[in-house]
Amino acid sequence: MARGDLTDTQWARLEPLLPRGQKPGRPPIWTRRQLIDGIRFRTRTGIPWRDVPERYGPWARVYDLFRRWQRDGTWHRIFTELQAQADAKDLITWDLNIDSTVCRAHQHAAGARKRGTCRPSRPVASPSSRTTTASDARAAA
């Protein structure tokens, strides 16, 4: 068991909430616990699906389980049931981690010159702020 994997008590609480398989057949090679730990590892670290360690099963199987349960609402149902259990015992702490590294500007917003605005290359000096030189002083006298 790796550092971030589900503990036995966490698994005992989560296992009854998981959907049961419908079809009989060959037993699965990878346990649901391994696959769910793989999903948790991927969401915790933010790595690409293809980089999920092999101890959690093939990355395609981990991704397939995640997407299937996402589409049919299983993750939402598990979350709401765990939330209802935890609210009674005040077990969930709500911490948010917002990552802005994926916010990108449009490719055309990369420092192009703005059209329609004419900017002078240097400020125009007003006549009252003209500097006086020696020749100007002689001419004025």
TrEMBL record:
Segments of skewed composition (Basic residues): 108-117
Lineage top rank: taxon: Bacteria
PANTHER family reported in the protein's UniProt record: BLL5188 PROTEIN, TIS1421-TRANSPOSASE PROTEIN A
Region entry Disordered, spans: 108-141
Taxonomic path: Bacteria, Bacillati, Actinomycetota, Actinomycetes, Kitasatosporales
InterPro entries named among the record's database cross-references: IS402-like_dom, Transposase_6_like
Segments forming domain Insertion element IS402-like: 6-79
Pfam families in the cross-refs: DUF4096
Protein name per Swiss-Prot or TrEMBL: Putative transposase
Record-annotated membrane-spanning stretches: none
Biased composition, class Low complexity, residue ranges: 119-141
